[in-house]
Design a protein that fits this description.
It is a single chain. It contains 2 helices and 6 strands, in the order H-E-E-E-E-E-H-E. The chain has 133 residues and is an alpha/beta fold.
Length: 133
């Protein structure tokens, strides 16, 4: 009998946890920041180096660099060609190459890329506005 109650309790907890996650997603809204701009990705040589925010950079995280957006800003980056998107957090400054709007970690770039050999992608940037804040 105790095993049955334990399993039932775990099921209830999991149900409440999934409802909380669904609400957070439901309350998240985006606003267009820039359309049809170019994104590139960090070279592996930057792994382990400090970013402008003081965090240590890792190509295996979902982070990005932008010249003007505040550190900690969440940005939805959508590949215009295939409509794949990823949410990244700004933690660095850049890119410093003319014509590029945002530098993505390799993990973020690969998540939306249509061609793993591409050096840059045309993307849309949307700012994440979480109403829970």
């Amino acid at each position: 009998m105790n095993l049955r109650y334990s399993l039932f309790s775990i099921l209830i907890i999991l149900c409440f946890a999934s409802c909380k996650t669904a609400n957070r997603t439901k309350n998240t809204k985006t606003s267009l920041y820039k359309d049809e701009v170019f994104a590139c990705y960090y070279h592996n040589k930057f792994n382990g180096r400090k970013t402008a925010s003081g965090e240590v950079f890792s190509n295996s995280k979902l982070t990005a660099a932008h010249k003007k957006l505040q550190f900690g800003t969440k940005v939805k980056v959508t590949n215009i060609e295939n409509d794949k998107s990823v949410i990244v957090e700004i933690n660095d400054r850049g890119p410093f190459t003319k014509g590029l709007e945002i530098d993505l970690s390799k993990k973020a770039f690969d998540a939306i890329s249509h061609d793993k050999k591409a050096g840059k992608l045309q993307v849309k940037l949307e700012l994440i506005n979480d109403s829970k804040k």
